[in-house]
Specification:
Blueprint: E1 11-15, E2 19-23, E3 37-41, H1 43-53, E4 57-64, H2 68-79, E5 87-89, E6 95-100, E7 109-112, H3 130-134, E8 139-143, H4 144-147, H5 151-166, E9 170-174, H6 179-182, H7 186-200, E10 203-205, H8 208-214, H9 224-239, E11 243-251, E12 257-265, E13 268-271, E14 275-277, H10 285-299, H11 303-317, H12 329-338
Parallel strand pairs: 1-4, 1-8, 2-6, 4-5, 8-9, 9-10, 10-11
Antiparallel strand pairs: 2-3, 6-7, 11-12, 12-13, 12-14
Helix pairs in contact: 1-10, 5-7, 8-9, 10-11, 11-12
Length: 345
């Protein structure tokens, strides 16, 4: 008899590009290094991998080149526990970026190659079977980074979101606005696309800065917490969003970070404890927070439990090498207990 799935476990797909990350060892500059370490990452990779580690049936929707580089990327996905049934093949390239770790007052630096020529970003109109995918999953995750790429990618995102919504699935949208990707007057270019994605979304990752800059909302408040508490309820009501969640971060002189998560649900805010911790690798920690929120929602946690779980998930992601969060549910729960927080199961 086959194993029965755990209660609350979902079949989730993330739409996004697979990128090759080339990391300079230690804290050297790219101009100093004589070797690079490579791995594969991307928001969709991070989200699907973390959800798989939490016990969900997680897939990536993407396009990879039909060559040894694409084969290596797909093998890497399978190693992370990511389902590849929705991976298409074609084109010649994967997007790449070079990462230089910061230290002290010197920030980290990411340098992209020509990612717009990648297999993902040149996918033709008919490459994804929207209705088939929508009928096979419970939820789908989208990211604002992909939304910034080009009109072709945006068309795929909106069509997939519409199909999943029509099939009764859950649509998740992480605003994740990156100014460098949108270019000059980026907020003006992005606004209509963000508004359209928010109309599909059930769960949204954003904070008060997204509401003000990306959506053009105004407030007379100057304190971040007060801005958040004024603007997020307006966004939820305007777009009929069930859950909005995000974080506030502070970076200290001793190189530690503090993070506090929030969640707005049923017209009420819930905040996590403020966690302070050392940082090994920050990239991907926001995706770990997103997955903590999703896991809590899928499992039926109370809001207080969900937001504490998500904050602990993000904290642990700062301790792993590479973009992709690697913590299991058990490890997150242990971190919560050690921080004086617990989840009733």
């Amino acid at each position: 008899m086959p194993n029965m799935p755990k209660l609350g476990m979902k079949k989730v797909a993330a739409f996004g590009e697979v990128m090759m990350r080339l990391t300079v060892p230690g804290v050297e500059r790219l101009s100093q290094a004589s070797q690079l370490d490579y791995s594969f990452s991307g928001t969709g990779v991070n989200v699907s991998s973390q959800l798989a580690r939490f016990g969900h049936d997680a897939y990536l929707i993407s396009r990879l080149p039909d060559n040894p580089l694409g084969e290596a990327a797909e093998a890497y996905l399978r190693k992370l526990g990511i389902g590849t049934a929705f991976i298409s093949h074609g084109g010649k390239y994967v997007g790449m970026y070079f990462l230089e770790q910061g230290f002290g007052p010197r920030p980290g630096r990411v340098t992209y190659t020509d990612r717009l020529g990648s297999s993902f970003n040149t996918a033709p109109d008919d490459v994804y079977s929207y209705s088939e995918i929508a009928g096979s999953i419970d939820a789908i995750h989208f990211c604002g980074i992909a939304l910034a790429m080009n009109d072709g990618v945006r068309q795929h995102m909106k069509a997939l979101a519409a199909a999943v919504k029509a099939a009764g699935g859950t649509v998740i949208f992480d605003c994740n606005y990156r100014p460098a990707h949108w270019g000059e007057e980026g907020y003006v270019k992005a606004r209509a696309h963000y508004e359209e994605m928010l109309k599909f979304a059930d769960i949204v990752m954003m904070n008060e800065k997204d509401a003000m800059l990306t959506l053009g909302m105004e407030t007379e408040k100057t304190d971040r917490r007060e801005q958040l508490e004024e603007l997020i309820p307006r966004v939820a009501k305007l777009y009929n969003i069930s859950v909005i969640a995000g974080t506030h971060r502070a970076i200290h002189e001793n190189q530690t970070h503090s993070l506090q998560g929030f969640m707005y649900k049923q017209e009420s805010f819930t905040f996590s404890e403020r966690l302070t911790f050392a940082v090994h690798d920050r990239i991907g920690a926001g995706d770990a927070y997103t997955c903590g929120i999703l896991h809590g929602e899928f499992q039926g946690f109370a809001p207080e439990q969900t937001v504490e779980f998500a904050a602990a998930s993000s904290m642990l992601a700062h301790t792993f090498e590479g973009d992709t969060p690697m913590a299991t549910e058990r490890e997150v729960l242990r971190a919560m207990v050690e921080s004086g927080i617990d989840v009733e199961r």
